[in-house]
Amino acid sequence: MARYEVDRLIQDMSKKEGLIGRVIDTPSDVFEEYGLTPPERTALLEGTPQALASIGVHPILQMHYLMYKNPEMATHVSIKDYSDMLKGGA
After folding, report:
1. Are the C-beta atoms of 56 and 1 separated by less than 8 Å?
2. Are 16 and 25 a contacting pair, CB within 8 Å?
3. Which pLDDT value is given to residue 50?
4. CA of 19: how far to CAs of 50, 69, 77, 78, 81, in Å?
5. Residue 66 near residue 24 (C-beta atoms within 8 A)
6. What is the pTM assigned to this prediction?
7. C-alpha span between 78 and 13 (Å, rounded)
8. What is the number of other CB atoms lying within 10 angstroms of the CB of residue 60?
9. Which of 10, 31, 54, 85 has a 20 to 30 Å separation from 38 between CA atoms?
């Protein structure tokens, strides 16, 4: 299970105007504000399902985070494709 701070950041990205842009443009500042640990920062910067899983991010929040950082992903990824990614596929 991810720490509350990680979950809160990902959830806040859909609630707080401008936060997605800040995470993309100045992630270290945002990560500092949320009190994230070095491993959490590294995983969020890497942004892969495997990296996010390594810090305990729930699969639904992983999908949200990936789509916030890569909005075009929503038009290319199905739930099956995402499930395959979680299992280490393409």
Report:
1. yes
2. no
3. 94
4. 23, 11, 23, 25, 27
5. no
6. 0.80
7. 22
8. 9
9. 85
Q: State how far the Cα of 33 lies from the Cα of 20, in Å rounded to an integer.
A: 14
* Helix (H) or strand (E) run with residue 56 in it: none
Taking the C-alpha atoms of residue 39 and residue 3, their distance in angstroms, rounded to an integer, is: 12
* Cα torsion angle, 35, 41, 43, 47, sign: positive
pLDDT the model gives residue 56: 96
Max CA distance (Å), the chain: 35
CA distance 52 to 40: 8
